Amino acid sequence: MSVDEISRIRLARRAVEVFGEAEAATLMEHLPLGGVSNLATKDDLKILGTELRLEMSELRSELRGEMSELRSELRGEMSEIRADFGTLRGEFGTLRGEFGELKGEFGTLRGDFGELRAYIEERFHRQTITMITTMSALMGILFVALKWA
């Protein structure tokens, strides 16, 4: 039989009359709401504990399965990443070789430009001497022509 709120209020008033205010409050605090039928027994707690352990075991198994799947996926992805890095290493090795070739070609170009510069300087020097000589000769001829004229 369940206890309703009106019955609890009547009991509380009667307890105040019989025991006094403080004692009645203590008594009412120790009485369960809804009556004794709502209290859990040790057997109820055992059943609940068994159900909880079973549910936790199922969840643990699911979690282990999912973790295993994730581990497998991660291993696969890590293998792909390793393969990609291997490919990149090869490509960087190729680039390093190509840059080495370019460096050699630039060295050759630098040498060619050095030779070209030396050639231009030598030709410029010759041209300057030739022009000075030609101008000196023309001035001499002009001087002689003016003196004879």
Helix/strand layout:
Blueprint: H1 5-19, H2 21-30, H3 42-148
Helix pairs in contact: 1-2
Describe this structure in words.
The structure is a single chain. This protein has 2 domains: 1-39, no CATH class; 41-148. The chain has helices spanning 5-19, 21-30, 42-148. The longest helix has 107 residues, at 42-148. It has 149 residues and is mainly alpha-helical. Helix 1 packs antiparallel against helix 2. It is rod-shaped. The chain is built from 3 helices and no strands.
Summary of the model, kept short:
The chain has two domains: 1-39, no CATH class; 41-148. The protein is built from three helices and no strands.
Order of helices and strands: HHH
Residue windows where pLDDT falls under 50 for at least 5 positions:
none
Number of DSSP-assigned strands: 0
What's the average pLDDT?
92
Question: Which band does the percent of strand residues land in?
Answer: under 5%
* Percent in helix: over 70%
Shape: rod-shaped
Query: In terms of structural class, how would the helical and strand content be classed?
Result: mainly alpha
| Gap from first CA to last CA | 158 Å
User: In this structure, how is the largest beta sheet organized?
Assistant: none
Round the Cα radius of gyration to an integer and report it.
Answer: 55 Å
Number of domains: 2
By DSSP (H or I, 4+ residues per run), the number of helices equals 3
List keywords for this structure.
2 domains; 149 residues; mainly alpha
